[in-house]
């Protein structure tokens, strides 16, 4: 019988759990927010969640626990890195939208 896996954790091919990012490790990586995404069918609403004030040892995926989508009321919410912050860092805040065909 396979051991049960935590639904909000990642595992390697041997079944070993990767330690999740926490509020403290994400703040140390200079992120100030994460993005909550609604996974309910046809919704895809998303919102930024500030990390300030959250417990430092809280795993990032667990920020989703108990949250509901403010648009549809769905409970299937997942947490991602805020890619806007990532792009701002990577591209200096410049618009990186492709401009037509090459
Ligand atoms: Zn929703």
Written overview of the protein:
The chain is 15% helix and 16% strand. It has 102 residues and is α+β, with helices and mostly antiparallel strands. It has a three-stranded antiparallel beta sheet. The longest helix is centred in the last third of the chain and has 9 residues, at 83-91. The model has no long low-confidence stretch (mean pLDDT 88). Bound molecules: zinc ion (ZN).
**What small molecules does the structure contain?**
zinc ion
Describe the global form. Answer: globular
- The overall strand count is 3
- The number of helices is 2
The unreliable regions are none
**Helix content bin:** 10-25%
Written as H for each helix and E for each strand, in order along the chain, the element string is HEEEH
Class from helix and strand fractions: alpha+beta
């Amino acid at each position: 019988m396979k051991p049960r896996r935590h639904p909000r954790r990642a595992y390697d091919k041997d079944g070993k759990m990767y330690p999740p990012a926490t509020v403290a490790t994400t703040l140390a990586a200079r992120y100030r927010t994460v993005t909550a995404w609604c996974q309910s069918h046809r919704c895809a609403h998303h919102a930024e969640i500030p990390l300030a004030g959250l417990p430092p040892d809280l795993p990032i995926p667990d920020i989703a626990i108990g949250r509901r989508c403010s648009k549809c009321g769905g409970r299937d919410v997942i947490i991602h890195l805020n890619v806007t912050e990532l792009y701002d860092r990577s591209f200096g805040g410049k618009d990186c939208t492709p401009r037509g065909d090459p």
